[in-house]
Predict the structure.
Amino acid sequence: KNIRRSIVVLVCIGLISRLRQMIKLTTSERKPKDVKSGSRQKAQLDRQFFENMRRLVGIAIPGLLSKEFGMLVAHTVLLIFRTFLSVVVATLDGQIVSSLVRLQGREFLVGIAKWMGMAVPATLTNSLLGYVQTMLAIRFRQNLTEHVHAKYLANNTYYAVGNLDDRIKNADQLIAVDVAKFASSLAEIYSNLAKPTLDAFVYNVQLARSLGVESLFGIMVIIQASMGMLRVLTPPFGQLVAQEQRLEGDFYFAHSRLIENAEEIALYRGHEAEKRTISRRYMRLVRHVNRVFRLNVFYGMLEDFVVKYFWGAAGLVACAAPVFAERLPGAQRAVAAVQGASTFGDRTRDFITNRRLLLSGSDALGRMMYSYREIVELAGFAERVTELLTVLDDVNSGNYVKARVGKSAEKSLEADSGPDIISQRGQVIESADDVEFIKVPIVSPNGDVLVEQLSFHVTPGRHLLIVGPNGCGKSSMFRILGGLWPVYGGTLRKPSMSQIFYIPQRPYLPIGTLRDQIIYPDNASDMAQKGIVDAELLDILRVVQLETIVEREGGWDAVKPWRDALSGGDKQRIAMARLFYHRPQYAIMDECTSTVSMDVEKIMYTHATKLGITLLTVSHRQSLWQYHNYILQYDGQGGYMFSKLDPNRRIALMEEKQQIEQELALIRDMEARLGELESQSV
């Protein structure tokens, strides 16, 4: 008896070992020949996959005392109970057929009654399993999404991922789609692996008692041989799934760009060009999906033949062996039983019971085989979600991967180009109330140096006007000051970010009420804590001459698509009202009054200075010079000048310059005319 138990254990261990070998795709089989050294093939079921799963499962299931772990335990108990019901039903099935061939009506009706009685716990168990699995998927997604949001929406990471790093182009799809698919796949894979494994073990033990370990051992040899063949012929589903998700992301990103830039594209009549771009990406996706479907047809036919028919035929032969041959391996126990009560009904009962157990065991092994594809698909989702978390961690740590373009790319290839400025970091010091750049290079994320060393000092009340040609570094300086771009060298002194407010040319209007547009990023509770009421907000709107908007739009609690409901001038007035509500120490004004009249502009700038807000303004309007007393002028060649600003003197110089230019142009015209006259007189 101990020997037989040992054989059963060895058979189960051998089966598990074979399944484990199936999910180990060797890198020599899956790597393309031109893979660069140091690069890793995506979505392999290797050590990296298990590390990814350990990391993600640790997030999805926070601990042993978590609600998710309790649901997992409940799911496991339900799986065990369903396996127990399956064994009972198999035995009951044999008894019903045995009573039928014996023509025992009473026993047959009793068996049918027991069968119907088993339906209640069986159907309840199946329903509870589906419910718990769905809830597990929801909880997994919730935990993963909250973890990603905590990283993605912290420290301007959402900006840096799309602008300072090139590794992820479609973070929105990864968060909204791939995380959900991974959570659902993770919840399914536990059920699809745990239940078949448990079933296979229990059914094999029952069959070993009925048929003998010798026949069971022969069946396992056949199963392992066929599984080895399937392993060799299995396509790389993990790589295919990961590639499909990347192509889906590219297609989604193309449509997102079209929606984001719809107005510009429409004005350029660029619909045909965008259609070609989107169609190319869609056709790449379609070709890949068609290829996967073709592979699935071949593999599905082979898998169904082996699992459903070949294994089923082997099981039927094993069940029939004790009936037809006394001396076949494993038949002695069955023959001994027949000799004790040699009836046709007993043999029928044993055959039906064993056949049902074998078919159930074959189905369990088949589901384990089918789960292999689910595992490699899970590997693809795990790879993409882990990549997202890795990039978020790197970006939060200030480590960016950005492709070089233009002069930056050429310089990076030079052997003696010196240390890479992108990899260097300067010092940021939080000051009490002043802003000072000390030899800070103005560098774009792709490595272009706009200004080698920028130095200037601004204290409260020293309003700074910033001018220069396009692309000289004006907005880049503001991005560094606002903490969007890293400081690549030197020292930057600035107040806390709560004391620096940025107003762009196109103000952002959030989803919410009219009140939310004024107090953003505060909410109603923050406004109440500051002791500000709606009447004070109305006074602020009155300053920017927009008090009628409250009644016009339906009150403070009106909710509309404000981006479309308001004109450009109204949006810029809302942005200035937002500035007056927060009253920071410094305000970065980036062409923020380009669509309002000069009268309203004068009112807004005058009120800002009365509130004690120091202005850092980018504008080409001469009318704004009078509100500033310092100027930072870029020459567009990497140089700059920082000095005091005398608005009247500068305006006079500009007018004199324009007059001289006009006179010079007139002289050139006169010289050209003189040349024409001289040529005609010769």
